[in-house]
Amino acid sequence: MLDQVVATEELLREWLFEKAKAEVIIGEYDGEAVGFTLFFHNFSTFLGRAGIYLEDLYVRPTVRGKGFGKAFLKRLAEIAVERGCGRLEWWCLDWNQSSIDFYMAMGAEPMEDWTVYRIAGDTLADLAR
Fold it and tell me: N-acetyltransferase domain: from which residue to which, for each copy (predicted)?
């Protein structure tokens, strides 16, 4: 999937720090970064309050299975509760069975009856005209 990544260091700096549209937690162990999670607030008209959308959760392969992923999700749950959010949600690729198994073990439930839609690139620009 790396061939689909178009983010640059400059774009990340602008959107994460200058415009502050998302938050990042970097996990460290023995002074080394072991992973990160990137998230932002969304809003649920069903719940009438904000939620947290988990955009990325990454743990280095060499330290997977040691509880870092669980620690990231736990911290996000704490933040959601502290901020009065009604939910924590994310998308997962349907072929990523190890992640699906992990999320299910954490108590996550797949959303039934929902389909994800996206408008991007030229289609987005065309629609905006």
Answer: 1-125
